[in-house]
């Protein structure tokens, strides 16, 4: 049963609240997932440590070409940020797909990652962007790629009873780099994704320097399409190359059948189409075209 | 159970009330402050009937711990207008028949008001986006969208 609700003013105060409660306290940001899990008994905690009033956690910053998003930044703040729209379009697009407008006003991007659902839209985008999370532990600060933050389906490597993810950081897209996020869903709003794919590409002289592709739900968390990335590296930017890469994405994908959101067979058929679209849009976002 | 003193601004008036850390804002509004205009539908953030405006943003009060309202400014349907003087969006919902059973209406109106507070020239797409989290099970959404458009026009005329 919840006995207390605290508003720390600093990150270190938040972490020390967790420590002094010895596992009985837990971080809350937007709370839109947590507050469903507590009454259902999925999560037991006696104290919530609300981090949304720690000033530095509400910021979206650009410093030395690196964008950082604080733990209190909501989906709508990320989606509406001109910086994110311009330099990390995939994340702006992903953030605008989550839940409803009201949910996006409360729910945070980092909360979306820490809740560790396999197809968490912003986590998929962040993996494609190569994001790294900064984690405040009782013993000090740690940096972990978002890609490595999944311990299993719905299980984060983050223990919110002792750790606080303070921000995620990723390089802003530079010239000739582009990002994109595509999503298949049954309704245009308030629907979980049947599939989602994010891509970031770097181009030079009509070729792909490199590409990073994340797709979901085809594993416990966002999965990198490593075969496709390998095909693209150094290859010409043509529809044929993109199609070949898109087909190879299946090599790393292991979608499950969902009664609500598509069978394994359906998802397997459709995934390459989404990867192709993500790549085409990322190329366009980089200011190029695949002709 | 430990209780906490929650201080916030409700519809422009300061409020001080004892709440439990477990209380959700929707329950405090309805059961403790007797403002039952805010409806509790699904209790899971899916229907939008409980939409209120907190610090200028529309949120689902069923997913907001009451403690999150600490020092915040909260607006509910009771605060935006009433029989003495309706808010333009209340007038147009009534005038254009954007209501059937009325259960979703307070939430629809609060989402609409949050949008119109930001812009009095919303596009059709912006209205749909702002209201996508508010579900009406009686009828469609066409009249509701029309009512928001009409309210926007009224507000522009007043400016």
Automatic annotation (TrEMBL), chain A:
Molecular function, one GO term: nicotinate dehydrogenase activity
Gene3D superfamilies listed in its UniProt record: 3.30.465.10, CO dehydrogenase flavoprotein, C-terminal domain, Uridine Diphospho-n-acetylenolpyruvylglucosamine Reductase, domain 2
Keyword field: Flavoprotein, Oxidoreductase
Domain FAD-binding PCMH-type stretches: 1-175
PROSITE patterns per UniProt: FAD_PCMH
Record bears the keyword Flavoprotein: yes
EC number, UniProt record: 1.17.1.5
The protein's enzyme class: oxidoreductase
Name of the protein described by the UniProt record: Nicotinate dehydrogenase FAD-subunit
Lineage: Bacteria, Bacillati, Bacillota, Clostridia, Eubacteriales
């Amino acid at each position: 049963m919840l006995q207390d609700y605290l508003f720390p003013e600093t990150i270190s105060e938040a972490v020390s609240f967790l420590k002094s409660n010895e596992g009985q306290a837990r971080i809350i940001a937007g709370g839109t997932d947590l507050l469903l899990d507590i009454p259902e008994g999925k999560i037991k905690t006696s104290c919530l440590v609300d981090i949304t009033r720690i000033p530095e956690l509400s910021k979206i910053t650009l410093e030395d070409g690196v964008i950082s998003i604080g733990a209190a930044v909501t989906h709508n703040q990320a989606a509406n940020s001109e910086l994110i729209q311009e330099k990390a379009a995939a994340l702006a697009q992903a953030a605008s797909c989550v839940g409803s407008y009201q949910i996006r006003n409360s729910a945070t991007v980092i909360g979306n990652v820490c809740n560790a659902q396999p197809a968490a839209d912003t986590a998929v985008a962040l993996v494609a962007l190569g994001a790294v999370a900064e984690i405040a532990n009782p013993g000090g600060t740690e940096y972990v790629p978002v890609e490595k933050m999944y311990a299993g389906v719905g299980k984060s490597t983050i223990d919110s009873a002792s750790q606080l993810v303070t921000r995620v950081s990723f390089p802003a897209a530079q010239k000739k780099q582009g990002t994109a996020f595509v999503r298949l869903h049954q309704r245009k709003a308030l629907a979980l994704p049947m599939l989602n794919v994010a891509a970031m590409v770097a181009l030079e002289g009509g070729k792909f320097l490199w590409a990073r592709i994340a797709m979901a739900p085809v594993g416990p968390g966002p999965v990198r399409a490593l075969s496709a990335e390998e095909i693209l590296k150094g290859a010409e930017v043509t529809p044929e190359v993109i199609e070949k890469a898109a087909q190879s994405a299946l090599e790393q994908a292991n979608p499950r059948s969902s009664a609500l959101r598509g069978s394994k067979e359906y998802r397997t058929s459709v995934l390459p189409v989404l990867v192709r679209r993500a790549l085409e849009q990322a190329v366009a976002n980089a200011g190029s075209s695949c002709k | 159970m430990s209780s906490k003193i929650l201080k916030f601004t409700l519809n422009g008036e300061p409020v001080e009330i004892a709440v439990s850390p477990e209380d959700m804002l929707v329950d405090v509004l309805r059961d403790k402050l007797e403002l039952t205009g805010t409806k509790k539908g699904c209790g899971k953030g899916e229907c939008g009937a409980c939409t209120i405006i907190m610090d200028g943003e529309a949120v689902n009060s069923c997913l907001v711990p009451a403690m999150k309202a600490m020092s915040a400014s909260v607006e509910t349907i009771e605060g935006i207008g009433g029989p003495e003087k309706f808010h333009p969006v209340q007038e147009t919902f009534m005038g254009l028949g954007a209501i059937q059973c009325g259960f979703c209406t307070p939430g629809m109106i609060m989402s609409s008001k949050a949008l119109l507070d930001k812009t009095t020239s919303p596009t059709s797409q912006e209205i749909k986006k702002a209201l996508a989290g508010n579900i009406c099970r009686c009828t469609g959404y066409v009249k509701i969208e029309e009512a928001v458009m009409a309210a926007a026009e009224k507000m522009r005329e007043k400016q």
